[in-house]
Amino acid sequence: MRHWIYAASGVLLAMQAQADMTVKVGQVSPLSGPIAHLGKDNEAGALLAIEDANAKKLKIAGQIIKFELISEDDASDPKTATIVAQKLVDQKVAGVVGHLNSGTSIPASKIYNEAGIPQISPSATNPKYTLQGFKTTFRVVANDVQQGGAMGTFAVDHLKGKKIAIIDDRSAYGQGLADQVDKKVKALKGQVIAREYGTDKTTDWMAILTSVKARMPDVVVYGGMDATAGPLLQQMRRLGIKSALIVGDGACSPEMIKLSGSGMDQNVYCTVAGLPRDQMPKGAAFFKRFKQRFGMDVQVYAPYEYDAMTALISAMVEANSADPKVYLPTLAKIRLQGVTGMLQFTPEGDIKNGAVTVNQFSSNNWKPVSVIK
Known about the structure:
The chain is of the alpha/beta class. The protein has eleven helices and 17 strands. It has two domains: about 20-140 and about 280-345, Rossmann fold (3-Layer(aba) Sandwich), CATH 3.40.50; about 145-270, Rossmann fold. It has a seven-stranded mixed β-sheet, covered by helices on one side. The chain has a six-stranded mixed β-sheet with strand order 4-5-3-6-7-8, with helices on both faces.
């Protein structure tokens, strides 16, 4: 690319200009529907990573790179997820961060794999996601084997629960998490007295909870998102079920506290497939910058979304190419200190040394009480 300037003598001189190169990267999360607050949290994390990368004027093949975020809404729907995944493939994105849910990440991963486009989920925890044999599939959080195991262990060993009721929303995430809790509780010689389920849109849990109450559980465990967990807890307390409730990372949010209202008490716990905020290596600075930039607090996954996007970009720069075929092997072997911790992947694409934090509701917030690695 050339542009022309006039010298003082009036002679026309040709100057070689360094051309910027635009690289499109995708982000997919539910930007509409009952968990849109989580999706927008993810989107903001990706955008902050893009803005930070562009401010550094990174170079690939001698050219300054401008990264462009293409954000899509999958509405937490598996079919929509495949549609927007193909849309991103058609737009020739260099990589994708997403999706938020396991139930959307898994079907979309097939499309990205066929196109050879790397996909990093900041939040999909179902083990199946990385067990499909795809070289393009990664995640930056612990999976449900780790998280479900931690929930089961906490229920039996810490809370001394002998009778455990397990409820889920029948999504790939919720049921997958519940299945792992079930396995761990039984392995620890606890008794699973109920396995009940609704859907990812259920808000009336009264019939299920009435049945659960009759069995007198010590602990209730729920696999699902905050939009359904909040009503579940409210109705538990309304029915006089005083048992401890443990929910997974999909409900470990400020929104869960808001939705649960007076149902929240110190007998409510949640897990997050990662470290507590105060133990994240760069957590304090990130949470402060995030609030300043977007005028809102982090819900759950924004720092993981930020790290996932940063990993994609770092792999491109290190490989000196935005071509997925070229930088994919670099991404698979990356070692990067992120906001949430060290980013390294197993051969399957799981995060190495994934941690699970157990939080307890206290003083109108989630407070970490245990970290399990």
